[in-house]
């Protein structure tokens, strides 16, 4: 069937959509395999899940250096494609799939069938079939979101990411798990409602859902519709601000991370947040580019609030309860503020966005490595010290030197101190975008917040190297007994991968920074 000279039958670029398809196929395979496997054979579900993610990573290789677009609207107008693969998409899909693979490794002891589950794992017994199916379904949405180029696909991918996460959080059979799942559900529903309302206003003002066509329409929008378009832009960006835990839309984060299984908290902190930032980058950097002079100052204020609130409350947690998961939750909020900083430097009509926003992508790539590494060590330590407070890490260097050295490295990376140079270079890249954008006050706020963040990261690091408390006798199976802390092989592999990649990026940061700071990354 044709309409004029344009065919309504679209060709599909199967190579372009192969990575999310591989993840979705792996999710279905896990669901079916769970019906036929029983007893100790269910441990293969985790390996099947990991295999699907590795296959999706391999399918990224043929797409290197190419620009592909599929699901394009017919007609003579330029652009109008729903799924686009370029450098931006490949970088974020690599980060998302690699991070999800590490989460699967961290989840293996937790999802091992009882009574084969490790007795030291306080969260063991989570149903493996349901867990890995939900995890892969959520990852499929995240990977699709990085390639989406219209608002409908963005919203559908975002919900495909979020809906399985509700159940993942609630799989921890406790009061905390149910409360965390409910809070995440309510906040996500609210943010989706705001996002959909904003998208509907943008569609009404521009007549299109495609981001590239929307940018062209906003540049020449009817003066009577400018208020509608501006309101739609504000609501759409606010919807994504919920997803990335920007202040004041961050209230769900600490309780949700604390109530969820720790591997799920790591997933929310890295994979879910990275996908949320991918959507924000696409909407702001492509669709709403003509309104950069409006949302740029607002994003600068959001960035300043987010990093300040995150760091100040993290200091309070470190000096108060010392809950390590809550501390990482507030730390991740502060890190979101740093990612938002390049958004706040946008000015004019978005002509400089190509020079600014890639700094956010570079920071996200480095953040994924250092934050996943920190969560991996916390997951290992919680097996023997389920209280999950900073005091549990006192004397870790004597009990388990590799764990202590790895945790110290990840904390110094988050702080931006040597030898964690990858964190330092990522912060410098973001800082350069602020200076180049001429937003002096934001540069000052960022510098002050980096100094505040040093306190709680160094307090935690000091615990690792402090001598054990003499009044607390060593008990077999705890950190006090030298060498008693046993780390399962999947945990060791996850920590080793994060540590190795962190060392490589600290020695050769240009691997990430030189590629990701090339103007035109967003197309």
TrEMBL record:
Record InterPro entries: NADH-Q_OxRdtase_suN/2, ND/Mrp_TM
Coiled coil (UniProt feature): none
Catalytic activity: a quinone + NADH + 5 H(+)(in) = a quinol + NAD(+) + 4 H(+)(out)
Domain NADH:quinone oxidoreductase/Mrp antiporter transmembrane: start-end pairs: 148-452
Assigned keywords, A-Z: Cell membrane, Membrane, NAD, Quinone, Translocase, Transmembrane, Transmembrane helix, Transport
Pfam family, one: Proton_antipo_M
Topology of this chain in the membrane: Multi-pass membrane protein
Cellular compartments annotated: Cell membrane; Endomembrane system; Membrane
EC number: 7.1.1.-
Transmembrane segments: 12-37, 44-63, 83-108, 129-148, 154-172, 184-205, 225-252, 264-288, 294-315, 327-349, 361-382, 403-426, 438-458, 491-513
Role according to the record: NDH-1 shuttles electrons from NADH, via FMN and iron-sulfur (Fe-S) centers, to quinones in the respiratory chain. The immediate electron acceptor for the enzyme in this species is believed to be a menaquinone. Couples the redox reaction to proton translocation (for every two electrons transferred, four hydrogen ions are translocated across the cytoplasmic membrane), and thus conserves the redox energy in a proton gradient.
Family statement: Belongs to the complex I subunit 2 family.
Subunit text: NDH-1 is composed of 14 different subunits. Subunits NuoA, H, J, K, L, M, N constitute the membrane sector of the complex.
Name used for this protein in its record: NADH-quinone oxidoreductase subunit N
Species annotation: Yinghuangia aomiensis
High-level lineage: Bacteria, Bacillati, Actinomycetota, Actinomycetes, Kitasatosporales
Gene field: nuoN
